């Protein structure tokens, strides 16, 4: 799409959505919670009652902040997502608003349209085929356990973690996803992350720090890594090194649902292949936008806004505008977001 047409379309969309959006409120920290050793229905803070999750599943998520559902997405759907990703890499399709990213070790002069050059695509809300992932009934059935019935798809990614070049740039620093989001409450947001093939420590599986979702949002910034860091790969600057870690070994179709305050990351890809996963962050449509100016999120907000301004050729775009554009209702009705 021509940049001028894209900018005009975005402006019209944002004017329409602003009329429907709720006002902005000031950010506030999420306080920690007490022990969850003894559970009663009225004590559940992170899950909702809808007869999908078993009591044991709810207890596990409440305590740990993540839950793996085995074999949730079919091989046929994963193959379709893989095929569409390859078409995007070959530039056969160019969905509006999509960001195509390459590893920091790949110079612009080396870039040719190829799956081997793309480490991630994000914001695929305008790609009908990839966005099907966000509407799969088997995914939304579980998402509703965390968000309630009015569900927004807010952030979409297909990750193609490359074999590490030796500079360890394929790893992702430990972080909390809420750092990137200007909306709350955090307990009404959840990520669905689906393995598109076998994933283990060798090719860079997710690593999570169980129970850290019960804490607050920590300051993030770029880690001081000698080999370089990929764009927007912010990490927590100070965390408890003694906190237990769990490496999530997953098979194709397995899906992990996790809280946006859960500290997680991924190691480098030591294999010779590309490690693929597809994900979406969902939120309750009743969530509200916050003002991140003056908070620990201000640094990433500036990056996101600057990138969007360059992409759409707009000078007065805001963080709220960016996320309003990204969001899509996938179940129920659009309310605040």
What would you note in describing this structure?
The protein contains 7 helices and 17 strands. Helix content is 25%, strand content 21%. The chain has helices at residues 3-18, 55-64, 75-89, 128-135, 137-147, 298-312, 319-326, and strands at 25-26, 66-69, 99-101, 120-122, 151-161, 172-175, 183-184, 189-195, 206-208, 220-221, 235-236, 246-247, 255-258, 264-266, 275-284, 288-291, 328-331. The longest helix has 16 residues, at 3-18. It is α+β, with helices and mostly antiparallel strands. Strands 2, 3, 4, 5, 8, 13, 15 and 17 form an 8-stranded antiparallel β-sheet that branches. Strands 6-14-9-12 form a 4-stranded antiparallel β-sheet, with no helix packed on it. It has a 3-stranded mixed β-sheet with strand order 1-16-7, with no helix packed on it. Residues 15-36 have low confidence and may be disordered. The relative contact order is 0.21. The chain starts with a helix and ends in a 6-residue tail after the last strand. Its EC number is 1.14.11.18. It is an enzyme of class 1 (oxidoreductase).
List the helices and strands and how they pair.
Blueprint: H1 3-18, E1 25-26, H2 55-64, E2 66-69, H3 75-89, E3 99-101, E4 120-122, H4 128-135, H5 137-147, E5 151-161, E6 172-175, E7 183-184, E8 189-195, E9 206-208, E10 220-221, E11 235-236, E12 246-247, E13 255-258, E14 264-266, E15 275-284, E16 288-291, H6 298-312, H7 319-326, E17 328-331
Parallel strand pairs: 1-16
Antiparallel strand pairs: 2-13, 3-4, 4-5, 5-15, 5-17, 6-14, 7-16, 8-13, 8-15, 9-12, 9-14, 10-11
